[in-house]
Amino acid sequence: LGTFVTKVTATDADDPVYGNSAKLVYSILEGQPYFSIEPHTAIIKTALPNMDREAKEEYFVVIQAKDMGGHMGGLSGTTTVTITLTDVNDNPPKFAQSLYHFSVMEDVALGEPIGRVKANDLDIGENAKSSYDIIEGDGMDIFEITTDAQTQDGVIRVRKPLDFETKKSYTLKVEAVNIHIDPRFISGGPFKDTATVKIVVEDADEPPVFSSPTYLLEVHENAAINSVIGQVTAHDPDVSSSPIRFSIDRHTDLERQFNINAEDGKITLATPLDRETNTWHNITIVATETRNHSQVSRVPVAIKVLDVNDNAPEFASEHEAFLCENGKPGQVIQIVSAIDKDDPKNGHYFLYSLLPEMVNNPNFTIKKNEDNTLSILAKHSGFSRQKQEVYLLPIVISDSGNPPMSSTSTLTIRVCGCSSEGIVQSCNVEAYVLPIGLSMGALIAILACIILLLVIVVLFVTLRRHKNEPLIIKDDEDVRENIIRYDDEGGGEEDTEAFDIATLQNPDGINGFLPRKDIKPDLQFMPRQGLAPVPNGVDVDEFINVRLHEADNDPTAPPYDSIQIYGYEGRGSAAGSLSSLESSTSDSDQNFDYLSEWGPRFKRLGELYSVGESDKET
Length: 618
Description:
Blueprint lengths: L3 E4 L17 E4 L6 E3 L5 E4 L11 E9 L9 E9 L9 E2 L3 E7 L7 E5 L1 E2 L9 E8 L5 E5 L6 E5 L10 E10 L13 E11 L6 E2 L4 E6 L7 E4 L2 E2 L8 E5 L9 E3 L5 E4 L10 E10 L6 E11 L7 E2 L4 E5 L7 E5 L1 E2 L11 E4 L9 E5 L5 E5 L11 E9 L7 E13 L5 E3 L13 H28 L72 H14 L49 H15 L1
Parallel strand pairs: 8-15, 17-24, 26-33
Antiparallel strand pairs: 1-4, 2-5, 3-4, 5-6, 7-10, 9-13, 11-14, 12-13, 14-15, 16-19, 18-22, 20-23, 21-22, 23-24, 25-28, 27-31, 29-32, 30-31, 32-33, 33-34
Main location: membrane
Pfam family, one: CADH_Y-type_LIR
Membrane topology: Single-pass type I membrane protein
């Protein structure tokens, strides 16, 4: 009551003689019982207490200002003032209902929302925001509730897996509390509300459940085939309890080293194991419901292969010792070490010894070192490469396993020539016969040069041989020009006794003679002189005959020239001679009148020949 709301002002444009703003009087024309105004200060105040925004948020107040101190004859003006009530947190949240019911499948995913509750608040903005919490119930650790910032709903979610077979329902007590509480109104009661939530879990067809999330099995590497190395168990959590069948995911057991009994889950060995090859085997066991094959579960099984003493120790590497000819007795020639593929719990411990027949070896002895290695010592000095270049020393190596395993390794000891400081220089007997100052590298270089020289000689001879191979002139390769003289004509199509055209390619082919390019002709000819310019007046016919004679008698001078004379025509040709060469019949003896009888196409040809004959007659 009497709370300041606002202040209004008015101005008067008249001369102060008649009145001014100081003499203005203010009043509320249209009454609002909730507000009042000071007449001279125009201050608006609340007239009634406990105004409620939730009941009415806006008020319209008409204010009148009158000059002349409000006396008769004064002028007035009015204005409307809109008064809006602002919200305060004076209302607690209230659930729409006191009991909520929800149902959920037991295989619902974690974090999945299963229901919503809401507490309504008549306030607005920040004053209407609430937070939700589960304060009581048998599922406080199974469920959680969060606030939706957009809708101010309480969202219930699953925190842990549900199991219909274990618990079928839950009861929760949910509380909604205002986030921003106004201390002025805290006496009005608690700004919170509660509701009960009941959640019913429904049964779902679940996959089999293994008794353990993982399995660790151990088996000795010498275990017998088909021996049981472990067992897995699983059950159907549903009320119907379907039988379970077990199998191995073969993608995890490509070598098929294990089998499993489909009924009881016993894992057996299918192939021999070797710890030195593979210490661990990781396989996956699959459990499937027989009534619903879509319900499948998997579990990893790690199988550790335990060691068995089944490998004998041996040298860590192929050792070859070098003994100096000028060595001293008791000198350590070589220190050797051994390895064992097995892995005993207490570590390796090796025993070294010589073969029984080599215990009294006059040249060498052995000594066990504290670091599980062995030293080879020379018994005397004066070793010589010429006397014996290589010594073989068999050594027996045994382990401490149960039963112990042993093997015999042979150490090769090579006698070498050394410097005075004991540095090995040469270990070959041939070093004695090598020339002084000529190393083995120089000898290899000389030998390589000799081999290279021999290869060059062989290539040279081969090329010469290919160059001197005879090249026979074949008829189809002879492209040289031939001069053929035809004295007679050949026969017709039925002439089977005509001259063989093959002889025209090479005149010498008639006699079976094929000149060769790589053989010198039997007849020696003088080198042909260069052709001198032909003087004026020389007989050309004589000149051609001389050149033709030279070409005929020189079989090596390309191109070959030949003269072929045909002495007869072929017989049996009904067409007669087709050649005009040396023919006894001339054009004047022929009659071309028959051409006019051949039709229009030959008429012009007949006229031409007729004209020719008439010209000859004239």
